């Protein structure tokens, strides 16, 4: 009897310890493809081609002697805080890292970083400077009730949330030869349809800037800074005022950004990543992003994740190709939408695109 009581007490202690540990870490991702087919939502917005090459790099990138520091310019609307050769910049609710290392030296360590955080890569295109994770579930959001805490991992696979997330990482080389690293979040939620209570659909939910900031902080740690330093740097990178508005010029929908080309180019690229566009190519010298886009009305017709495992899915809506032109106008920048041939586009889709970009950037 005594031994039974001891075992029960030990099990309770372990369950409480597990619960406490989980509460101290609110991010615990597992890719959906580990035990199930890829979550193909929203309708394509899937990527071009999937490159499954992935090699774990032995050893970690180190950076010694990091000291927190901050550089600021009263005329510069972008807040900047540095740790060694890594600094974080922020404009509005957008943040990104700037690293004084070549992009090709950072590619494999960043792939390794995503795998260590529980993700699989669905896109790996070094030529475009873009990698994207598969849809993954944040297991830290699953409630820790008494039954689950007691059974532990034995029946852990039976528990799931109604949310999935994916993250896109984009690397760009700036004029100084530094590498700018952008992390953007996309999320979907599984909800019941209005017509039937036994059917669900996956619907997009807003991007989470705080999740993006958390993974930027973790990436700083992966690149050599201590957790305490990275946390302090993220906290001091205050928001800076930035203005972007949707407007109509000569009958064409545009986004007017009160920033120069370099910053506007960064912000447009990050907004495209956040809002689910597929960037096929980009030409910074010409100021053009080549993208694919699916009208948002089609997103609500996608069947639920689990129904896809047992039935065929309807044909996804056909994606349209556009060019997003970023042009400098003095100290400001104008963003417009062109069709696939490079001609000005005034369609309803072009109006939606400019509104989506303006809403994300401002």
Describe the structure.
InterPro entries: BamC_C, NlpB/DapX. Residues 1-17 form the signal peptide. The protein is α+β, with helices and mostly antiparallel strands and 362 residues long. Helices cover 26% and strands 30% of the residues. It has 7 helices and 17 strands. Helix 4 crosses helix 5 (227-236) and helix 6 crosses helix 7. The chain has helices spanning 2-23, 103-116, 146-151, 209-222, 227-236, 261-274, 348-361, and strands at residues 29-31, 68-71, 79-83, 86-91, 94-99, 121-125, 130-133, 136-138, 163-173, 179-192, 200-205, 244-249, 252-257, 278-283, 288-293, 320-329, 332-339. The longest helix has 22 residues, at 2-23. The strands form 3 sheets. Strands 2, 3, 4, 5, 6, 7, 9, 10 and 11 form a 9-stranded antiparallel beta sheet that branches. Strands 12-13-17-16-15-14 form a 6-stranded antiparallel beta sheet. Strands 1-8 form a two-stranded antiparallel ribbon. It has one domain.
Give unreliable regions as ranges: 1-24, 34-77, 296-313
Average pLDDT level = 73
Tell me the span between the first and last alpha carbons: 66 Å
Briefly note the structural class of the backbone.
Answer: alpha+beta
Report on the biggest sheet.
9 strands, antiparallel
State the order of secondary-structure elements, H for helix, E for strand: HEEEEEHEEEHEEEHHEEHEEEEH
Number of strands: 17
How many domains, as an integer?
A: 1
Query: What is the 3D shape?
Result: globular
Work out the strand percent.
Answer: 25-35%
Gyration radius over CA: 22 Å
Count of helical regions: 7
Helix amount = 25-40%
Pfam families: Lipoprotein_18
Protein name: Outer membrane protein assembly factor BamC
Keywords: Signal
InterPro entries: BamC_C, NlpB/DapX
């Amino acid at each position: 009897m005594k031994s039974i009581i001891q075992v029960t007490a030990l099990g309770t202690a372990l369950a409480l310890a597990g619960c406490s540990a989980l509460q101290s870490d609110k991010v615990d991702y597992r890719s959906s493809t580990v035990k199930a087919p890829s979550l193909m939502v929203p309708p394509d917005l899937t990527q071009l081609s999937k490159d499954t090459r992935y090699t774990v790099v032995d050893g970690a990138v180190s950076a010694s002697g990091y000291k927190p520091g901050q550089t600021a310019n009263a005329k510069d609307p972008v807040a900047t805080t540095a740790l060694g050769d890594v600094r974080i910049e922020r404009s509005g609710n957008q943040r990104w890292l700037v690293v004084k290392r070549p992009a090709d030296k950072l590619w494999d360590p960043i792939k390794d970083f995503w795998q260590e955080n529980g993700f699989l890569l669905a896109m790996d295109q070094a030529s475009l400077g873009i990698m994207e994770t598969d849809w993954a579930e944040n297991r830290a959001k699953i409630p820790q009730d008494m039954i689950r805490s007691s059974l532990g991992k034995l029946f852990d696979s039976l528990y799931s949330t109604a949310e999935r997330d994916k993250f896109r990482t984009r690397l760009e080389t700036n004029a100084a030869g530094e590498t700018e690293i952008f992390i953007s979040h996309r999320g979907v939620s599984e909800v019941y349809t209005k017509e039937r209570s036994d059917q669900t659909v996956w619907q997009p939910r807003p991007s989470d800037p705080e999740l993006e900031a958390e993974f930027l902080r973790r990436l700083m740690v992966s690149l050599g800074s201590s957790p305490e330093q990275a946390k302090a740097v993220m906290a001091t990178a205050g928001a800076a005022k930035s203005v972007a508005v949707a407007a109509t010029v000569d009958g064409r929908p545009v986004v007017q950004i009160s920033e120069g080309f370099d910053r506007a180019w960064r912000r447009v690229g990050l907004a495209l990543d956040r809002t689910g566009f597929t960037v096929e190519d980009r030409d910074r010298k010409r100021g053009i992003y080549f993208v694919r886009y699916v009208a948002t009305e089609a997103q609500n017709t996608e069947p639920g994740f689990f129904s896809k495992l047992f039935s065929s899915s309807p044909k996804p809506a056909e994606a349209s190709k556009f060019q997003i032109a970023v042009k400098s106008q003095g100290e400001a920048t104008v963003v417009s939408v062109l069709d696939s041939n490079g001609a000005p586009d005034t369609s309803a889709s072009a109006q939606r695109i400019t509104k989506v970009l303006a809403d994300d950037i401002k």
